[in-house]
Amino acid sequence: MLHIRRYLAAEKGINTQQVKHIQILRRSIDARQRTVYVNLSLRVFINEEPPTLFFPQIEYQDVSTAPQAIVVGAGPAGLFAALRLIELGLRPIVIERGKDVHSRKLDIAMLSREGRVDSESNYCFGEGGAGAFSDGKLYTRSKKRGNVERVLHIFCQHGASTDILVDAHPHIGSDRLPRVIQTIRQTIERCGGEVHFSTRMTSLLLEGNNIKGIEAKKLPSDETCTFHGPVILATGHSARDVYQYLHTQHIELEPKGIAVGVRLEHPAALIDAVQYHLRGNRPSYLPAAEYSFVTQVEDRGVYSFCMCPGGVVIPSATADDEVVVNGMSNSGRSGQWSNSGMVVELRPEDVEGDDVLRMMHWQQSLERMCKRQVMRGQSAPAQRMTDFVNGKLSANLPSSSYIPGLVASPLHFWMPREIAGRLQQAFKKFGRMRHGFLTNEATLIGVETRTSAPIRIIRQNDTLQHIRLQGLYPCGEGAGYAGGIVSAAIDGERCAEMLAAAQQ
Q1: Which side of the chain, N or C, has fewer Cβ within a 10 Å radius?
Q2: For 123-146, what is the mean pLDDT?
Q3: Exposed, middle or buried, 223 (CB in 10 Å: 0-12/13-18/19+)?
Q4: Rounded to whole angstroms, how far apart are CA atoms 77 and 71?
Q5: Which residues contact 200 (CB under 8 A, 6 or more apart)?
Q6: Strands (E), 347-495
């Protein structure tokens, strides 16, 4: 910042002491050419002091005696729905099947070290949802759906770094996001709302076509409890029991396209060299390099997903009989490896049958197939990248960030041909686009399947309520209307607004 201050002083013909403050409005990296640029948009305060805060603070009122609304799920959609309900004068009752974020950390550590999956507390279930321990990326293209800046401001108000307000690809980090989530919960409780952990919804309370609340069970006692009020259903993309329950109750659903593939891990220094055109070490002013690839192979999209510079690969199964992987990185992104999902588009018409749950069943069958390749704990099948492209079993594997361990396996052979074949062709294309990217120093780890929900819970576009049931608001990524932390948060706010309007 000192260099910028000196440059501005020389440019304006003033003393550096007159530059009281420099606020970064936008920051991005342009590495398209040999020379890498750090692009900055600045607000400069000359001979005047800056304001104390650069973003608005929302005042959350006391709603302890207000009418209540039920929010099922404490992921980003559910938490932001609860905050918005408070703003609108309603008392949120948040029901979460998993544990609080601190207790959840212990179960996740056990999952990585011992390979034992707690079906209610894991990388997908618990306070903060699937995003809490899988990176905290806040980049979204869903600007047409709502106010992205508002969501980022709320995160900052609850402890996130204000860097997320300026970075082109904002990111909180898996080391910092849990504290932010805990602070959001404390706001909900301080204002008179409730948050119930280890409480799994088992059924909706119905009177005709009207939702009157939910029935739930306290875990592990299985004690039954009921909660009354309109319901925002924000259960996330992995709550298969919820989809199954809704289907048996003849609640309108439809299959939704998903993307499946592998998690691809490179040495971080290699990705830095490829993306920044480096011959030596990455300079300190540049962050760990990111990449983004997309192509079409045989009329289906193949693309990188949830890229984690300087990150680690994590086990994301929600049951012992499956193996699923994902990626995450901490705020510093300083790890030895970089990883990304590499996935292939799968449409409902690609899976035989007319069962509305067929995409979910296909997804689950691939995860179970993956488990059968290793048969122990949460070890994952893996293959060197060039070996996969050439259809060759890897004799050995590189070191990896994946703590449960890797087992050499012919992914090209046992993965569905429509997935493996398209990945092979895409990797050849990506290798031509970025020299050095296609390499046997990189490892494919199977399988990446939880990119989005395989089901959409149908709702009316104008009210966001379920198409038939009054008082039910399917919400967020699990309902098929969002794809990531920010878009889920925006959808949560919109559902809260529609619920509040219907109560007037």
Answers
A1: C
A2: 76
A3: exposed
A4: 9
A5: 97, 120, 216, 217, 219
A6: 380-384, 406-408, 443-448, 455-457, 472-474
- Residue 187 in tokens: 């706001």
In this structure, what DSSP letter does residue 66 have? S
For the cut 70, the answer to whether the pLDDT of residue 140 exceeds it is no
Q: Give, to the nearest 10 degrees, the angle between helix 76-87 and helix 148-157.
A: 90
Helices (H) and strands (E) in the chain, counts: 12, 20
User: In the numeric block, which tokens belong to residue 171?
Assistant: 């990111």
Rounded Cα distance between 371 and 357, Å, is 21
**Which residue in 212, 215, 216 sits closest to 229, CA to CA?**
212
**Can you give the three-state secondary structure of 420-438, one letter per residue?**
HHHHHHHHHHHHHHCCCCC
The tens digit of pLDDT for each residue in 150-175 reads 999 999 999 999 889 889 888 898 88
What does the alpha-carbon distance between residue 101 and residue 178 come to, in Å, rounded to a whole number?
A: 6
- Of the candidates 319, 448, 315, which has an alpha carbon nearest to the alpha carbon of residue 379? 315
Q: Which residues contact 106 (CB under 8 A, 6 or more apart)?
A: none
